[in-house]
Amino acid sequence: MTESSAVKAPTALADQPSYAPESPPDGTGGGWGELFSRRFAAAASILAGGVALYAMNLYFTAALMPSIVADIGGERYYAWVATGFLMAAVIASMLVSRLLARLGAARAYVLGFLVFGAGAVLNAASPSMLALILGRVVQGLGGGLVAGLGYAVIRSALPERLWTRAAGLVSAMWGVGTLVGPSLGGLFAQFGAWRWAYVLLLLAALVLAVLARRVLPGPSGPGAGAGPVPLPSLLLLTLAAAAFSISSTVPVGWATVACIVGGLVLLAGFVAVERRGAATVLPHRTYLAGNGLKWLYLTVAVLCAGVVAENFIPLFGQGLGGLGPLVAGFLGAATSAGWTTAQLFSVGIESARGRARAIRTAPVVLVAGLLVYALTQTAHASGPRVVVWAVALFAAGTGIGLAFPHLSVAAMRSSTDPVEGGKAAAAINTTQLIAFSVTSALAGTLVNLGGDSLLASARYMTFGIAAITVLGVGTAALTARRLGR
User: Fold this and answer.
1) 10 Å Cβ neighbour count for 139?
2) Residue 398: which pLDDT band, with cuts at 50, 70 and 90?
3) Pairing with 405, which of 23, 152, 387, 484 sits 20 to 30 Å away (CA)?
4) What is the DSSP string of 345-361?
5) Helical ranges in 95-230 per DSSP H
6) What's the whole-number average pLDDT of the chain?
7) Sign of the torsion angle spanned by Cα atoms 404, 409, 415, 418
């Protein structure tokens, strides 16, 4: 941040224990009707559409993969299709605030959608698995950019009274992607038309690019506040994600431990470089003593870690509950459904005390839901027990939805400086993607610990993720203390 912006916004770098005021200046909150009014509907659609396109694509490709492998081969590279996409998305998400400052919202979105579309073209034309992985990396770069912009652009595209509902809408798209992606991907796979599935993604990206160019604001200045790219931080974080990813592919034992320890060391190195670096991924204030942003980001990371369990729930539903693929898929989406449903109601909480209470309660509800699911695991589960699983997972998701919109808006309002506020908002998505990548790898390792016993794998994975989310009880309490009592 420049010296002039520091003068204009002294709270941006101050070592203080509170965020900027949570209430709109006029004391009123905008409703859903205003957000979807003719004035704001197009902008809201772009913000939500970009995140939906990214989230849907995650599960979309997973449903297509058996058909893709049957057509072009390359089964040994199966895992790298997802890994390449996620790694590229993490890298792109860390560049959001800089591209936004240099290009403005409209051009940054157009760039993101066009890169995503280019990746879809490569996927549709792929003659081999290696070509498909390249296309997925390109898609990940575009997808990580548009997903991060979904949070960062709320501040400049919409009035403050609509920020909370817009953040809820954008966050809800992760749940929508979980629900729509597998079914739509399965439909294309059913008809043996997996290449046309990527043509559909290309068309959606092009439509959103045209819409973004027309309705979103341009650059506010000649690259003001863009700053240099934090290459050391990017390198350390990428290597950490790679180490965690490899931990789930090596034989269980010392190799697994070495990968996990290596990943933790690299994350510690990332934090050390960030604290001392002139160019950082997260806002500089995150690392100041007494500042609450670090607790906010840790709370986001822990809540997102809870979602990762749903990646394996369809497997457990089929193996332990005797469910068919379709029903097991819907069981796997129960957490995201709870997340989406809860936050659509949570955005209506107006008082600072109510928002703080929602954030404080969220990880408790999440942990409780995961523990109920873990404790009721059994082989040859009956229908009523499967219903209990669904209710527990839905409840776990409601815990995430209670807090997420308020955490996003708290990041946006953490600084009166637009550049720093935008950077803080973009870091929400970066934190999400890092949490998804790291926890997915750890979950795979926990599943492997079960060996040939699917029941043991289910318990290791669920209890392990529940143990991670317990940390959120403390970080959420520290975050809530700065938002209201």
Assistant:
1) 30
2) very high
3) 387
4) HHTT--SHHHHHHHHHH
5) 96-124, 129-152, 154-157, 163-190, 194-215
6) 80
7) positive
